[in-house]
Amino acid sequence: MSNPWLAALSALFVWWFSTGAILLAVRWADRRGGATHLWAVFSALPLLALGVTATTTSLDDPSVRGAYIGFLGALAIWGWIELAFLAGQITGPVRTPCPPGLTGWARFQMGWGTVAHHELVLTLGLVFLAFTSTEAANKVALFTYLILYFARILAKLNLFFGVPRINTEFVPARLDHLKSYFRRGPVTLAFPVAITALTATVAVCSERLWNAPHDGATVTFALLTALALLALLEHWLMVVPLPDAKLWRWMLPAPKTTTAKERQTHGL
Which among 86, 103, 111 has a CA at the least distance from the CA of 170? Predict the structure, then answer.
C-alpha cells in the first residue's frame, strides 16, 4: 500500500465513490420527500463519528496506515457536512432565489446568506482539525481538509462571479434557489486566482512527494497531490466542456418533479 500510484488511485476512487454516494442519498431523499432529508443526515451521524475517531487516531501514526486513516477520516467529516448541506439541513438563513436585477454588494450578501451556516460548520471542522493537529506527527487529515476547504471557497466564488460552464444537473431540490446566484459568463479575476493557487498546491505536494523521507510521507503526499489535482480539474471543468456528469449520472435515479406547492412549502 506504500506505492504512490496506488495511493493516488485510491484517492481518485474514494472521491468518485463518496461523491456518488452523497448524490444518491440526496436524490433518494428528494424522491421520498417529507422528513427523509433529515433522517438521511441523522442516519449518517456514525460516518461523522467514524471520521472524528479516525482523524484523532491517525495523529500520532506517521506510517502508511496512519496516512490512509487520516485521509479517510477527514473525508468522512467533510462528507457528512456536505450531505447535511445538499439535503438542505445545514445551509443558511436565505432560502429564496436571487431577486432579478440585484447586483453588487447586495447580491453578495444574499448569496452569502444561502450558505452561511454551511460555511460556519465547515470552518468549525477546520478549527477542530487544526487544534488537534498542533503537535501531531501526522497532519494528513488537516492538510486533506485544508485542500477541500479552500478549493470549495474558490469554486463558490467562481460560480458567483461567473464562469462559462456551470453544471446544475445535480443541484438537489431543496437547493434549487442556489441556481439563481450562479452566473454563467466570461471568467473573472477569481478564476486565474483559483487556478494559480491550486496549481501551486499541486506543485508543493508533488515536490514533497518526490522528496518524501519514508513510506508514510510518500503515501501522505501522493494522496494530497491527487486530491489537489482533482480540485484543479474541478475548476478547469468550469471552462472546458467535458461530460463530467456522466461519472455519476448512470448510478442516480431520475429526479422527482416538484410541484409549485411543494416548492413553496420548502422555500424553493
Answer: 86
Residues 6+ apart with CB under 8 A from 74: 51, 55, 129, 140, 141, 142, 144, 145, 148
User: Which amino acid makes up residue 211?
Assistant: N
Burial (Cβ within 10 Å: 0-12, 13-18, ≥19) of residue 161: middle
209 in Cβ contact with 225 (< 8 Å): yes
> How high is the pLDDT of residue 244?
67
Phi/psi of residue 163, each to 5°?
-145, 155
Closest CA to 157 of 238, 268, 241: 238
Question: In the chain, what are the helix, strand and coil shares in percent, each to the nearest 5?
Answer: 70, 0, 30
Mean pLDDT, the chain, as a whole number? 90
Look up the pTM and report it: 0.91
User: Quick one: which of 148, 150, 4 has its CA closest to 73?
Assistant: 148
d(CA 95, CA 102): 16
